[in-house]
Amino acid sequence: MKGALSWPFLRLYLLTLLYFSANSILNVIIPLKGDSLGATNTTIGLVMGAYLFTTMILRPWAGMLIQTYGPIRMLRILLVVNGAALLLYTTTGMEGYFAARMLQGACTAFFSMSLQLGIIDALPDKHRSQGISMYSLCATMPGIIGPFLAVGIWQAGDAGYLAFTMISIAVLTGIVGFSTDIDGKKEQPAPGQAQQGVTMVESMGQLVRNPHLFKSSVLMLTASLVFGAVTTFIPLYALETGSGHAALFLMLQAGTVVAARFVLRKKIPSDGRWHSWFMVTIMGFIAAASLLVSFLAMGGTIWFYAGAVLMGLAQALLYPALTTYLSFVLPSSQRNVLMGLFIAMADLGVSLGSIVMGPIADVSSYSLMYTLCAVLGAVMILFAYERRPGLERLKR
Taking every annotated instance into account, which residue ranges of this chain make up the domain Major facilitator superfamily (MFS) profile (predicted)? Predict the structure, then answer.
């Protein structure tokens, strides 16, 4: 096999699958643990949101350091730190999870940037969208089995099962990670190249001044907020209503993401143009999915699971489409740092989905919270529409 499905890249995808396996389990365990201890949705949201909030803060610096030192060197350092973070979950209770989530979030900032920038640099232009889509697919695949495994661990009531699982994942991830390399890199940066471009403060300003980055970041931020609210509170929502199965919902969502990213990977635009109706359709999926999820409080179990499928379809297409688009239109001298800022917006959105939506659920209800998510998705339908056939590329 060649291109995005060649052996070197398959090893990167396997590493991605192993790395994100722990989080697919913890996303269910932590809310259930917090609820059993009497924690509020606000507290649970803060603990869950600490993970990607930390990732968001460190993304731009991760892009700069990777551009200077290379993705593989940074990857091997963070795998050691990630192993230490997973060990914290085996030796502490809820009080230590906040610190563990922050440490894990720091690792994820460098991990995902290392792999995605490595994939972008190593693949020819026509294969970029496939490579990013396969990476995203493997990051999501653990979500198919992870929730059911988490429920089994929780129901067993034995902390030893969680400890064994986290240690096993840390060891396997380290073994695969240290044997992985990326061949055929393009645009090898010289030491200090990051300083020859724009400074970090100047790069931050590009979030507003660069129309491509601004539009993509707003869409990703809002969509990720909805994704974060689903990931964090679906287990508690299903438990409160007594109808619907959270693990089945998350499995359907993740399964749809995996299937769509594989089957539709060649349909994701990879030409550097803004495909307006493609983006409008995705945001429509998010609005409809959120509304369907809100029906669970009224006994709408079938609509609840339908929402999982629509949410998974939107999640499968949005991120690789926007990432690939930006890889073409961002100036090459600033690309790594600006891509880090964009991915940081995705992290911030997921984090806000936990931190902001938790208090809203406390003062109202889960159903109203998901209705609000549907409203946000509907607003983004209008924002995604672009009358012109495509935005012009920025001069590199």
Answer: 8-389
